[in-house]
Design brief:
Elements lengths: L1 H6 L2 E6 L12 H23 L5 E8 L6 H4 L18 H12 L4 E4 L1 H12 L1 H18 L19
Parallel strand pairs: 1-2, 2-3
Helix pairs in contact: 5-6
Length: 162
């Protein structure tokens, strides 16, 4: 923001997740972090609006699960193999949107069409959507996932099984 103020313009793009809007079990720390990114972006956006700094934009991108090696490299303490919660989108969906936001900024964008549907339905019937997300997560991550010993891993060091 400091640099954008010097140039009197800019686009800050923060990456959160649909889970920054819809809480999901088994992802408490991830969900908390993504809710934090959404809240931080909202707060900065409000600060800029209050100061009439309209040429500085803050965009929050909230992807659905993507078909990447995220799940294979993250720590996993469930005792089951970590797999994407369906549907898993091609990463190019979000990459294209990131490039587009540089030229055409939007406050919040959900990538993966089902994310927009889930978010809208979550506003209308939060309990039902949260229960559905919980059921989907339970099935994908526990009930239908093969057993696997717990693994360590984080942002900087992949799990030993990656």
């Amino acid at each position: 923001i400091r640099q954008f103020r010097i140039t009197k313009r800019g686009v800050l793009i923060n990456i959160a997740s649909v889970l920054g809007k819809i809480p999901t079990p088994l992802y408490a720390s991830y969900t908390a972090a993504k809710f934090g990114v959404v809240g931080l972006s909202d707060a900065i956006r409000r600060d800029l609006a209050q100061l009439h700094e309209d040429n500085i934009r803050v965009c929050t991108v909230m992807p659905m699960a993507h078909d990447t090696n995220f799940f294979e490299n993250a720590a996993n303490y469930t005792g089951h193999e970590s797999v994407a919660i369906p549907p898993a989108y091609d990463p190019s969906v979000t990459i294209k949107k990131l490039v587009d936001l540089v030229v055409h900024p939007e406050d919040e964008v959900i990538t993966g069409w089902q994310g927009t549907v889930f978010n809208t339905l979550h506003h209308l019937m939060p309990n039902a959507i949260e229960k559905m997300m919980a059921s989907t997560t339970q099935q994908a991550q526990i009930d239908n996932a093969p057993l696997r010993p717990p693994t360590k891993g984080n942002l900087f060091i992949a799990s030993e099984n990656a």
